[in-house]
TrEMBL record, chains A, B:
Protein name (database record): Putative phosphoesterase EM808_03340
The entry's keywords: Hydrolase
Residues spanned by motif HXTX 2: 114-117
InterPro entries the record matches: 2H_phosphoesterase_YjcG-like, Cyclic_Pdiesterase, YjcG
Annotated organism of origin: Niallia taxi
Length: 170, 170
């Protein structure tokens, strides 16, 4: 089964992201707005139990993660994705690295924490959206105290399998 | 904020439900297939923390819940909802009652555990779907070991706030 790991920001930031995603993100209906910690990885039922236990241990090493949005950005020219950039911080970076090492997946890209607003945009759409959004001020701060392990259904949507609360060790 | 409590059945049952929901359930994109334990209830940030702690206690009283599907059914004439009927069992009933009492919401309806396949159907659609599905055999058994607390976004979609694993007490 295909799994992924993500942080869901608070309702306010999710509602903001969805106001753009509705029009600009073909994956709008498949998953709520999120910060990806690990993209897709495969695991069978036994493996995921072991991974799940290890993730709970990882979660216990952190108390909270600052989520700070200052601006929008784009992955162009790599791809036409426009996103809210989450300010990198050592906690978030360490959490990501520890999770990656725990699962044993390899970094394909550098970790750029973000909440997608639009993707699979044509060049014209990308230009329009980016031009209008870069003039706007985005300023938002919150604290995450949990992350989630999700799995993918056949229709491409994601269901939460487990929540890991930071600072808890069962 | 609006919260709800649900069990997500395994991927196989979710995929089956989605194959009908895609066409017959206008809420298809808003939440994965689920068994509702508590419909919408309101709570503020402080309240939900207390509720969350209490739900973890409730979860610790159970080890697993049998999820057994034998047939489809309908809520007609109350409303045109067609669903996979989950066989009632004392664990599931007790879990539901304990959660309801913990949160302090009142029963509006008797608890009929189910996974919705179609809703808001016209009478014709309802008749068509029900006639074709009642001829099919549905037979599925699995064991749930967790339930989820979710909150609603402005667009009507639901995000998981927390997972409660049965048999665990933190």
């Amino acid at each position: 089964m295909k799994y992924g790991i993500a942080i869901f920001p608070g309702k306010e930031l999710q509602d903001l992201a969805n106001s753009y995603r509705k029009r600009y993100d073909p994956k709008y209906a498949l998953i709520p707005p999120h910060i990806t910690l690990v993209g897709e990885f495969n695991a069978d039922n036994d493996e995921i139990k072991a991974i799940s236990d290890k993730l709970q241990k990882v979660a216990s090493h952190y108390h909270s993660i600052a989520i700070k949005v200052l601006k929008i950005s784009t992955f162009q020219p790599v791809n036409n994705v426009i996103y809210l950039k989450i300010e990198q911080n050592s906690n978030l970076e360490d959490l990501h690295t520890e999770i990656i090492n725990t699962i044993g997946v390899t970094h394909e890209h550098p970790f750029i924490p973000h909440v997608t607003l639009g993707q699979q945009l044509s060049n014209d759409e990308h230009l329009d959206l980016y031009s209008s959004l870069r003039m706007r001020t985005f300023s938002h701060e919150e604290t995450a105290d949990r992350f989630h392990l999700l799995y993918e259904l056949e229709n491409g949507s994601w269901t939460v399998f487990e929540t890991f609360r930071l600072g808890k060790d069962e």
